[in-house]
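dumping these here so i dont lose them again. two proteins, back to back, each one seq then structure tokens. dont judge the mess
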Amino acid sequence: MNRMLGALCGAALLVAVAACEQAGTGLPDRHKVVLPEPAPPSARWIVDDLASAPADLKQCPAPTLATLAVLDSDGQGRAEAFWLVDSVDVCWAVIAANGARRIGFGSIDGLATDRLVPFDSGAGGDWYTVTAFHGRVENLTINGDTDHVLGPVHTRTVDLGGGRLVTFASYGVRIPEGDQDLTLFLCPPVGDCRDTGFRPFTSRGREDRR
């Protein structure tokens, strides 16, 4: 009995030490996140398309219907989606109708704060962006040169655990001929808008370096 009690106490001590070490680092708690419902069977083509992508992002696990969240899709050609590595990191993808594809990896916090960088799909001057907002954010709108916006903003809110919510969003714009600048702002109902202005040469330069 004493040996069993000692073993239990020793295990509890190790857990407590690990928790203290985690807290001492100042790093966020990292754990797996289970989506409440899988992507629909109609999203199988997205999973298959991403599975055939070159393995240039070792940090991204292969998505499955259980882990994939589709932000928008036109059926069998274009899609924007994401899948969580864990409660800290996320992978996202933009698939264009012409077969162009981009897969991104980064922290959820970074995606919610970094400068928005669109992906050139190469299809008729269409550019798509995947981003995130902390908390539950509904009814996101784009203000500015809205004549070039391709439909509404699409969102999906995920509970990362411990009451920590994050809303992922995607939208597309069509760049006018002449590579002129576009003034655009992504705006929540409450709070500050995020500058999503498109500057062709600056954006392309950033894309080339990523």
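---- next one ----
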Amino acid sequence: MSQEHVGAMNELLAASEEVAAAAKELSREYVLAYELTDGPVDGATVYWQLRLSPEGTAFTLTPAPQADLWLRGDWRSALTSMANSRNGDSESDNSLTPEGDFESFMAAVGEQFAVARKVATIPATFPV
């Protein structure tokens, strides 16, 4: 994700009444962090985070040391899997390894996550 892509998604999330309504159901902020190794710029590690809270949902491109859930893996493999999934390949290999309690995290944020995903998914060309 580029900063421009993140900015566009955050604008959609902030403007959505549906996201705001789902957010109010959360009791606290939850953070999902991605750590993707061997990124496109000199092999540097790429960080993404998704913050879901009663105030709303937002993406950033920074590390999140205190995340509730980490998804870690290789950048190229992760993006290939995401591109395959978006193209309807239900058998795409999810190469991300969760660290933390995935089931509890999704039980807490599942509705907001689903609404945010629907609202903020924008056309993208995956660089893989």
